[in-house]
TrEMBL record:
Residues 1-234 form the Exocyst complex component Sec10-like alpha-helical bundle domain. It comes from the Eukaryota. GO terms for cellular component: exocyst. Transmembrane segments: none annotated. GO terms for biological process: exocytosis; Golgi to plasma membrane transport. The lineage of its organism: Eukaryota, Fungi, Dikarya, Ascomycota, Pezizomycotina. This is Recyclin-1.
């Protein structure tokens, strides 16, 4: 709109010379465009702040502790659940949690509103910032959870849902390693307590997480296992060789 006004009202009547960067009209136009860009960026940032506040609100109020740390069930009940149950009408639920589904729907609704209303470069910047902030919110939320081996299935399903949304909806390639690392992070909760060496190998494998998480950070997430105090000694022995002793 600014360019159209400039061409029709200033450049065409030769009131302003488009080739003279010192022309007062050109300088005023450039200053106004800069002010407009700053205002748009500030508005988008406010929108992202509000979106992330809502995401964190959903995480805090709709995610029960039993999503990732379900109550233990008797072996006979677990078998019946996997096989479909006797009159229960359903098998083991391995899909994403309701909270993750609502968060993806919320983020998708906000990002779709900008599609077609702004240029691609601005949309990519917005989506990239949303993805980065969403990743940070998920990491923060995960550090507040207790995750059991049974609950790891739901956690991995949630991470897969987030990753697929970033891949198919946000479409920012630079974000994919971050959410791929979250998917890999779920594996440390799926390993049975009896396999401490395998758990230690996953924690120490930096390549597995694509450089997104250092071993120290993965170890911090591993501490959110529901059985951490039972497996900690064996995991640290496998990681740091604490079984060695000085004679």
């Amino acid at each position: 709109m600014i360019d159209v006004f400039y061409e029709q009202q200033l450049a065409t009547p030769r009131i302003a010379d488009r080739n003279d960067f010192l022309d007062p009209a050109n300088m005023a136009k450039k200053k106004f465009e800069q002010m407009l860009d700053e205002s748009v960026a500030a508005g988008l940032n406010k929108g992202i702040d509000a979106l992330m506040a809502e995401v964190e609100h959903l995480q805090a109020t709709t995610q029960p502790p039993t999503d990732y740390n379900p109550l233990p069930v008797a072996p006979t009940e677990k078998t019946a659940s996997v096989l479909g149950g006797s009159g229960g009408g359903g098998g083991l639920d391995i899909g994403p949690t309701a909270t993750a589904t609502r968060i993806v729907a919320l983020v998708s609704g906000h990002t779709r509103m900008l599609a077609g209303t702004t240029d691609k470069s601005m949309l990519d910047v917005f989506n990239a910032e949303v993805g980065q902030r969403l990743f940070a919110a998920i990491c923060k939320h995960l550090k507040r959870q207790r995750v059991s081996v049974d609950g790891a299935v739901k956690l991995i399903a949630d991470m897969n849902l987030y990753s697929e949304h970033v891949r198919s909806a946000l479409r920012i390639p630079d974000l994919l390693p971050y959410f791929g690392a979250l998917r890999e992070l779920g594996q440390i909760y799926l390993i049975d307590a009896a396999h401490a060496k395998e758990m230690a190998a996953v924690i120490a494998d930096g390549d597995r997480f694509g450089g997104v998480f250092r071993a120290e950070e993965v170890y911090e997430y591993a501490q959110r296992r529901a059985d951490w105090y039972l497996v900690r000694k064996n995991v640290e022995r496998a990681m740091y060789g604490m079984e060695c002793c000085v004679m």
